[in-house]
Predict the structure.
Amino acid sequence: MSKPAIAASGLRKSYGDKVVLDGVDLAVEEGTVFSLLGPNGAGKTTVVKILSTLVSPGAGSGPISVGGHDLAADPQAVRSSIGVTGQFSAVDGLITGEENMLLMADLHHLSRSEGRRVTAELLERFDLTEAAKKPASTYSGGMKRRLDIAMTLVGDPRIIFLDEPTTGLDPRSRHNMWQIIRELVTGGVTVFLTTQYLEEADQLADRIAVLNDGRIAAEGTAEELKRMIPGGHVRLRFTDPLAYQRAAGALSGATRDDEALALQIAGDGSQRELRALLSRLDSAGIEADELTVHTPDLDDVFFALTGAAAVPAQSKESVR
């Protein structure tokens, strides 16, 4: 297995008597999207600030490595290998988009010619060339966020921290941002993402960790996390009443819906479970007219793990 792009052991942080992080372990593989979820105030931004050297880890924290560099021993090397886009835009609205980019190039000590070359390439890549000469204050929210990330990429970082990058964006701008993140990862960049949009983590993240009460409550792929929560089931629907009755007899434990001629069988919807279910139907010579798999979504996972007040959650459905 390749060396993690980010590794932290026993990460701790307190502010006075308030314990924000209480022994957080993280491992993020290179070229992946890792998403950190949690309620407001759970410490997500604190994690980002520590890993990006903006805040010192608390007493008792274990070793932290970012981009192959020891954060305590060589914080400057860490800074040189990362980019950070926070919740609030770093764009200066009083100057143009191009001037914002050139200012960032100066901060990275690029030569004038190199700075202009990188600026032009990134403005084109993020579809900002036409607006480059306009004051950034005239940009839409989506344009400002694209400029924000473009500025982050001036130093060609291999690791990018995105702290709630799509907050306040409309759905179209959010989806455009998702595509940008996917393209970054395709290019080998590692993305550490915090977000308040569970769908965003579901769409983008290779692995997800849920932070609650200063600790990691659970970690895994989106599908692994969903299967931790009860409530998944397979629904079989029939048009032939006789086939429905025979299936109900063959599948002991199924919940019946006689009016809809449908059966509900508890399960996680895995390939193994579906194969076993279909094998039982085949053995009995029964064929369902419709099979749908219902699984809990990340909303269900989030509320179950964080103890947040339950809200109606829409299950994901896939027709097989």
Notes: Residues 286 and 320 are 16 Å apart (CA to CA). Confidence is low (pLDDT under 50) at residues 309-320. The radius of gyration is 24 Å.
